[in-house]
């Protein structure tokens, strides 16, 4: 190590950072040089992006799929402003992203005319401070190691989240005289998980065993892969209905106790609900929402007992109320669900063994829940058959055909829900098979996050699938450059309804409520003039493209070809499908 930036990159290496996504910028030119010429562009490897929003989204998707952070490099004030939406998405999603930025010289006497002045802020982190877990701007090279270790630890501790580190360009380019000693990272990074009070686990076990109709409500428990198997064990031990909200994959969709499609019915019967890291508990226990009044009815009886295992309260900020409306509960257990579930399985089995009766009631409940599950699956098949030949292509048919195309492979759905149809029709079983929602709901999310998942899956043989809406895609089409340049074998199925359709629905409802023409609902919303040729766009980036597919019977052959491109040629493929909005 000769320069300050060498030190910064060495810290990334010692923390096991594998990749650094960037759009090039002069204020981190020192770090850029060190990544290439000191570290040899290996560990971390540079991932070139055409926009900082894409770079941060790539790091976000990598964290979701790999369960460890990568770095996103952003250029001073302007790059941080471009990146801010993606940082907010990562914040709302509770995912660890190490955002590293440069700034022009803090010493005003060292600044070039104009450019260094407009690209230097007195406190650059003010741009994002409300939606990062921590930020720092070390004033000396000696302070850099401890600052970096603290940032890494805070990003990865529950509740996880993005952090921001800003390095003065003068600090990056300064010589390491005298040398800076790097302490052992393990002594800064090794921490335990957040465990529950023993009495709280006993209480949860007693309520589960004594309940006549317990429901397990899982939202983000599956962010830790081990939690999925423990949740299955708990449900089977108790004979409880399980509702998976779909924000992450929490519970096998084809398990007989999965009641996600019968959520309203099982919650209306529940006398005890155990919520497991539910992002919006109030919203999960109310519904549906009236778009005009913005109100929702409660799904639970007034006497239903509710407990919640969560670390969500530790993530609160005042700037944006992403903690959602508070829901009254009988017990909040502040702990990591992945720690609580195995303890709860053990205590619950112990209580069941001690119970003198109740097995008959549990079996009756189990049969009832299994019947709900079976009818829901049969209902989904009926809808698929009814809409099999629809044109534009129906979402059930599209989901089915993509599922058939990837069924023989290990796969991961990184983005896109198609109205929930993949979970109804695909074998959602394995941990991390679905990486969940865009919790921040900022558009421009899907492509970058999916590319990050591809990076995390290199060498695993897993095919990463992106069910990409065209409106979100048009925010960051330059992500195709990163896909092609780094030969990331991402399967992009572009579901094109030629509209920002969610807003069409809002405009229709407002027009109806006001007695105005609903025929105007698409003005300022439709994406059909010009009618974008996504195939040409993808091919211009060197991405294989098939489509536009308008005939549903053509889907199997086109999707099969795209899958071969991804799996055999190891490069990205895009299939555009003209589909119905619902």
Describe the protein in words.
- Helices cover 41% and strands 15% of the residues.
- It is of the alpha/beta class.
- The chain has a 6-stranded parallel sheet with strand order 2-1-3-4-6-5, sandwiched between helices. Strands 8-7-9-12-13 form a 5-stranded parallel sheet, sandwiched between helices. The protein has a 5-stranded parallel sheet with strand order 14-15-16-18-17, sandwiched between helices.
- Helix 2 links the parallel strand 1 and strand 2.
- Helix 9 crosses helix 13.
- It is globular, with a radius of gyration of 25 Å.
Helices and strands in order, then pairings?
Layout: H1 4-14, E1 19-22, H2 29-38, E2 45-48, H3 52-66, E3 71-75, H4 76-92, E4 98-103, H5 115-118, E5 134-136, H6 144-156, E6 163-168, H7 169-173, H8 186-189, H9 198-210, E7 214-218, H10 226-238, E8 241-244, H11 263-269, E9 272-276, H12 281-284, E10 286-289, E11 296-298, E12 305-310, E13 331-334, H13 337-354, H14 359-386, H15 395-406, E14 411-415, H16 421-425, H17 446-456, E15 463-469, H18 470-473, H19 479-485, E16 491-496, H20 501-514, H21 534-540, E17 544-549, H22 555-568, E18 573-578
Parallel strand pairs: 1-2, 1-3, 3-4, 4-6, 5-6, 7-8, 7-9, 9-12, 12-13, 14-15, 15-16, 16-18, 17-18
Antiparallel strand pairs: 10-11
Helix pairs in contact: 1-2, 1-6, 3-4, 3-17, 9-13, 10-13, 15-22
């Amino acid at each position: 190590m000769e320069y300050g930036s060498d030190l910064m990159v060495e810290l990334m290496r010692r923390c096991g950072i594998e990749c650094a996504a960037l759009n090039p910028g002069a204020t981190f030119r020192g770090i850029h040089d060190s990544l290439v010429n000191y570290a040899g562009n290996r560990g971390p490897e540079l991932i070139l992006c055409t926009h900082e929003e894409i770079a941060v989204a790539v790091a976000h998707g990598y964290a979701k799929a790999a369960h460890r952070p990568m770095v996103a490099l952003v250029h001073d004030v302007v790059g941080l402003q471009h990146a801010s939406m993606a940082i907010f998405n990562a914040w709302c999603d509770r995912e660890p992203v190490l955002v590293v930025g440069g700034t022009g010289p803090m010493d005003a006497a060292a600044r070039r005319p104009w450019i260094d002045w407009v690209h230097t802020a007195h406190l650059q982190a003010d741009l994002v401070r409300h939606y990062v877990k921590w930020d720092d701007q070390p004033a000396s090279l000696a302070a850099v190691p401890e600052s970096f270790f603290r940032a890494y630890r805070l990003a990865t501790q529950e509740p996880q989240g993005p952090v921001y580190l800003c390095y003065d360009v003068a600090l990056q380019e300064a010589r390491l005289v005298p040398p800076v000693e790097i302490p052992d990272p393990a002594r800064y990074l090794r921490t335990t998980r957040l465990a529950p009070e023993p009495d709280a686990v006993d209480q949860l076990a007693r309520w589960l065993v004594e309940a006549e109709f317990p429901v397990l409500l899982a939202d983000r428990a599956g962010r830790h892969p081990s939690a999925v198997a423990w949740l299955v064990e708990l449900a089977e031990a108790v004979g409880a209905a399980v509702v998976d909200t779909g924000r992450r994959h929490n519970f096998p969709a084809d398990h007989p106790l999965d009641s996600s499609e019968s959520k309203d019915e099982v919650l209306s019967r529940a006398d005890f609900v155990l919520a497991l890291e539910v992002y919006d508990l109030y919203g999960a226990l109310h519904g549906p929402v009236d778009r005009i009044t913005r109100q929702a009815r409660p799904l639970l009886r007034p006497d239903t007992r509710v407990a919640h295992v969560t670390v969500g309260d530790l993530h609160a900020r005042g700037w944006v109320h992403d903690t959602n409306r508070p829901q009254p509960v009988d017990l909040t257990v502040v702990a990591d669900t992945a720690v609580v579930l195995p303890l709860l399985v053990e205590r619950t089995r112990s209580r069941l063994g001690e119970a003198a009766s109740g097995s008959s009631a549990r079996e009756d409940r189990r049969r009832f829940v299994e019947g709900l599950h079976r009818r829901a699956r049969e209902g989904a098949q009926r809808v698929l058959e009814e809409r099999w030949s629809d044109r534009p292509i129906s979402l059930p048919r599209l989901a089915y055909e993509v599922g058939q195309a990837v069924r023989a492979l290990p796969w991961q759905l990184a983005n896109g829900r198609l109205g929930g149809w993949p979970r109804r029709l695909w074998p959602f079983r394995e941990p991390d098979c679905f990486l969940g929602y865009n919790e921040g709901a900022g558009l421009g999310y899907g492509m970058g996050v999916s590319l990050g998942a591809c990076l995390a899956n290199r060498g695993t043989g897993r095919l990463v699938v992106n069910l990409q809406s065209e409106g979100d895609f048009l925010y960051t089409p330059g992500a195709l450059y990163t896909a092609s340049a780094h030969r990331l074998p991402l399967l992009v199925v572009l579901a094109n309804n030629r509209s920002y359709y969610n807003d069409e629905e809002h405009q229709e409802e407002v027009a109806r409520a006001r007695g105005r023409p609903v025929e105007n609902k698409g003005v300022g919303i439709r994406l059909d003039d010009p009618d974008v040729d996504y195939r040409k766009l993808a091919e211009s980036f060197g991405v294989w493209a098939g489509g536009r597919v308008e005939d549903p019977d053509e889907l199997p052959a086109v999707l099969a070809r795209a899958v071969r491109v991804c799996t055999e040629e190891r490069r990205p493929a895009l299939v555009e499908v003209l589909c119905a909005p619902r």
